[in-house]
Amino acid sequence: MSVSETSASDPQSETRFHLRYLVGIFLVAVTFRWIAQPPLSVWPLCFVALVPLLILVELRPRYSRRDYLGFWGAATIFWLVSLQGIRHANPLMYGGWFVLSAYLAVYMPLFIALTRTLRRRRLPLLAAAPLVWVGLETIRNYFATGISAAMLGHSVADVPVMIQIADLFGTYGVSFVIATVNVALFVIASIVRPVRFAKWFGDTPGRGHVVIASAIGGGLLVATIAYGQFRLSQPSTERLATFALIQRSEPVEYQQDSAREQEIFQQYARDSITAFERTNEPIDVVVWPESMFTGGYPWMIAEPDASIPGPFEGSASEFKLAIDSFRDYFLSRNADVQNVLESVNGNHGKPHLIVGCGVIRYHEKTSIHSGIVHVGTKGNIQDWYAKNHLVMFGEYIPIVRSVPWIRDGVPDGLMVTAGEGPVPMQVGNTVVLPSICIETAVERITINQMRQLDDDGKTADVVVTVTNDGWFDDSSVIDHHRRCAQLIAVGVRRPILSAANNGPTAWIDHCGRVVDSLATGSNGAIIAAPMRENRVSLYVKIGDWPAKILALFCIIVMIDRRRQAYV
Fold first, then answer.
1. Cβ(508)–Cβ(515) below 8 Å
2. Are residues 527 and 549 in the same domain?
3. How many domains, in total, are found in the chain?
């Protein structure tokens, strides 16, 4: 039996708790958090989900390492359930699923530990808990490449009035408000706790503390709602280009033969034709999900310094002829698709294509990219974008490139090369910022790219993201991905148009509202006509440095905690 040890320096802390009681309280917190998010999405529970953790913060007895291991185990279960869709991608991903869940599980016990440390330093709970929670969310958005999914603020993604402050401080700001309300409710509830529990906690908060907590928590919530109402009431200016977002539910594998890739290409082409047949709305752009346009023929680029890859048998001139032949076929195929789409309906001209497609670039070293190619109305390649932020264990495995005997046995899908920086794509009067897959699940990526374009005087009008979430079957991972995109849409104050294999295919406006979406696992198309929003958000202008300050604050508290040996 494991119990929490008492502190010799604190004679009042005589009560000992069995580990199962502590973990039981913790499990209530993670259960509330899970119910508040997809697939159940009972969002009001997010306003009390941290209360059980605050109980654990305020309990007087010191915790043993075994107690914290119990918290970590319960948190691991939460993340395993929340992200269970990851395991469907590939047998290799089972290990990644467990490692990622075990890593993310560290943050909730760490929240308890750091907040207890600050309470011992006499910092009020109303300040300590929100600061630590948001600071830790910031750390996990950066550490080990970062991930934003299932932040506390995402719980209210479908409550537009609550998320408009994301244009000021990102999802971090929404999380801060929710955490503050949790603390206020905890303080209010503490005044009515039974006398027999008093010895387990610190002093019962006085009437003044309750008034302050109510004023701050309630005031912050009211201010958030008022700001949300204000932003939601502001009209947009003019209509942008019209986009056809194509979705199918195609089973995919890391290693697919050329015939299967061509079959997928034909299926998407047929659904694009169907989308054109079913609307009289002139369509400017057709968007296909990540890699679906490859069709066995990636776009190839041979730089002047290109070296001949090992598998190719022939001279440098023969290699160049082979690349030119591939490129010619690729371009003629583009023109064929556009010609067919133009002929389907007299209201349509030749559309631009902004499509997910593999890109192979031959230079000193051959690089394989998960890309987006922008095909102009004449079938030419106007721009291409290489995914900047890759999925660890999904698109690359650290160190593997440096170990030839391991590298040779890794599928090409796990040997992707990252691109560098944003690439604006011009369609008539509309500037598109392209994004691929996880880049809308790591909030800073889109924010930083939008800021870079703004600094260069090339502000984007709409974010177009392509993804292949067919890896995750019909799991709630797809809903988490969409919610990340909703908060980013508010953060950059731009519509986000998502075209996905299997889902989430959605038209999200600049206020984070889902204007239209397709059911996960369905086949179809969305005709999206987003509106222009000219304002540049504060979040884009200043970035996430306020959240980074809180992250630094948490790191300092960690160092202080180790120095003081608090448990």
1. yes
2. no
3. 2
* The token pair that represents 533 in the structure block: 């929003």
Strand partners, 381: 375
| Structure confidence at residue 393 (pLDDT) | 59
Looking at the structure, do residues 209 and 346 belong to the same domain, yes or no?
no
Beta bridge mates, 361: 301, 367
My answer on whether 47 and 194 are in the same domain is yes
- The answer, as to whether pTM is greater than 0.85, is yes
Range(s) of the domain holding residue 403: 243-533
pLDDT of 414 higher than 80: no
Strand positions, DSSP E, 394-531: 425-427, 430-436, 462-468, 496-501, 506-508, 514-517, 524-528
Same domain, 281 and 225: no
Question: How many angstroms separate the CA atoms of 217 and 129, rounded?
Answer: 13
Tell me how far apart the alpha carbons of residues 376 and 385 are, in angstroms, rounded to a whole number. Answer: 14
CA distance 475 to 305: 45
Q: Are residues 193 and 265 in the same domain?
A: no
pLDDT at 518 over 80: yes
Identify any residues that bridge with 514 across adjacent strands, giving them in sequence order.
508
Q: State whether 66 and 129 are in the same domain.
A: yes
Residue the block writes with tokens 């089973």? 251
CATH number at residue 302: 3.60.110.10
* Residues classed as catalytic: 290, 387, 437
- 337 sits in which H/E element: helix 316-344
Contacts with 338 (C-beta within 8 Å, 6 or more apart), sequence order? 350, 351, 353, 375, 377, 379
In this structure, the answer to whether residues 480 and 560 fall within a common structural domain is no
Intra-chain end-to-end CA distance of the chain, in Å: 19
Residue ranges of alpha helices (H) inside 121-165 are 125-140, 160-163
From residue 264, alpha-carbon distances to 88, 111, 271, 287 in Å are 20, 46, 11, 15
